[in-house]
Amino acid sequence: MRGGRVAVVGGSIAGCAAALAAARGGAGKIAVFERSGARLRDRGVGIGLHNDRYEELRAAGYMTADMPWAPLSRRVWSVRDGEEPYGRPVGEQPFPFRAYNWGSLWRELRSRVPEGVDYRAGAEVTGVEPDADGVTLRLADGHREHFDLVIGADGYRSVVREAMFPGAGTAYAGYIGWRGTSSDVAGLPSDGEHAYNVVFPGGHSMIYRIPDGLGGHRLNWVLYTRPPQGDGLHPGPPAPASLPPGRLTSQLAGHLRALVADNFPPYWAAKVLGTPLDTTFVQPIHDVELPHYASGRMVLLGDAASVARPHIGGGSVKALQDATVLERAWRTQESWKDVLEAYDAERVAVGVAMVALARRMGRAQVENTPDWSAMGQPEFETWWQAQNGGSERNSGFGGHGIKGRE
After folding, report:
1. Which of 11, 54, 128, 228 could form a disulfide with 233 if both were Cys (CB 3.0 to 4.6 A apart)?
2. pLDDT category, 23, cuts 50, 70, 90?
3. 302 pLDDT exceeds 80?
4. pTM reported for the whole predicted model
5. What's the rounded Cα separation, in Å, for the pair 272 and 257?
6. Average of pLDDT values for 353-360?
7. Which burial class, exposed, middle or buried, applies to 371 when counting CB atoms under 10 A from its CB (0-12, 13-18, 19+)?
8. Does residue 232 surpass a pLDDT of 70?
């Protein structure tokens, strides 16, 4: 099990973590294929990491204290109430999270990938061909390479997953996330250490401060709602297409900005509407759930393996945990088959549970929102527990603990 040629398809956070796992597990040669030729910076924008999950990942060597982060302690859910600047709180809860910037976290992980790893930017994998003793990758430039093991860390549209489970693509959840960041962090309540959820009929928005990677902070926000139907506003059937920065249509931008103006408390409306359009983008929300994460000499990690809607704050956590468990299996098992079976046995159930919880939260927070204006703290707590199905600590909110470290 020591040595061998390993390919990692995808070079973002999941891919860098996979490369670390392979190097620490003892792989002989590692190549990372990242289709983007530009430096990865702003995908995902803000990431929340539960304090307990951070401690596990720090102990495993995948997170460090010097990675830039901003503390979060509580989350306040508010509804518009006339001209009250911040709205009326309908519920408040502990929120023991650390806020990261996707770009700076990626840079930190990238810098920790050993120098001997062949990280290839601008290398797109277009085909994955398994055989009896490994896998051949076909690249967009026509080049072909054979590896003993291929790790798919290439996101929710994974080419490795398609090779393992043909036709097992993503399922559109029926709504979108409109995301943005701005440099306007002036006057944030509670010194910026709270997260704020602005709620409205048919969705909500989460707003919190993140590091800017340069020693300061940015304001990060995401708004979940159904896209408009008809009049050419829907980004594209049968499911919306991702609209990267600078590609948001004027019609859709107008619809979303009107929603904010009509439903957000004045202070938060000003923050969101003041965000430059060229730093905002739209992502469709998807589910991905698979029966296995390994097949032959192929294995999946991160969003390639499963995608849970972002309401549970566990997506990037799971990718880093997947890498941690893969490394452990690599160190303790005696064959490729044993490594992948041990990894699969531990991670599939976690992914299934996270997808199920995220679906419940999506239904409660976007698809079938309650009468927010009728809520106070007691009603909020009842509503929150109904979607969690138990205590917050054990529900999976923020991600499940790594087996053996809980």
Report:
1. 228
2. very high
3. yes
4. 0.94
5. 8
6. 94
7. exposed
8. no
Q: Is 140 left (phi over 0), alpha (psi -120 to 50) or beta?
A: alpha
> What b-and-e string marks burial along 354-365, b requiring 16 or more CB atoms within 10 Å of the CB?
bbebbbbbbbbb
Whole-angstrom distance, CA of residue 102 vs CA of residue 213:
10
What residues pair up with 32 in beta bridges, in sequence order?
Answer: 8, 119
The CA distance from 340 to 293, in Å, is 8
Cβ atoms of 174 and 226 closer than 8 Å: yes
More confident call, 41 vs 303: 303
pLDDT at res. 234: 64
Q: Which of 319, 105, 108 is nearest to 220 (CA)?
A: 105
pLDDT (average), residues 117-137: 96
In DSSP terms, 87 is beta-bridged to: none
Confidence class for position 202, pLDDT limits 50, 70, 90: very high
Q: Which two tokens stand for residue 337?
A: 């088959």
Instruction: Tell me the HSE value of 116 on the side-chain side, using a 13 A CA sphere.
Output: 11
Contact 209, 217 (CB under 8 A): yes
Tell me which residue has tokens 């709205």.
87
353 by Cβ neighbours in 10 Å (0-12 / 13-18 / 19+) ranks as: middle
For the record, the structure tokens of 311 come out as 């309401």
Distance of CA 142 to the CA centre of its chain: 31
pLDDT in tens, 252-273: 889 999 999 999 999 999 999 9
* β-bridge mates for residue 152, sequence order: 9, 300
* Inter-residue contact 376 to 81 (CB < 8 Å): no
Token couple for 130: 């398994």
Question: What type of residue sits at position 341?
Answer: E
**CB neighbours of residue 212 within 10 Å:** 18
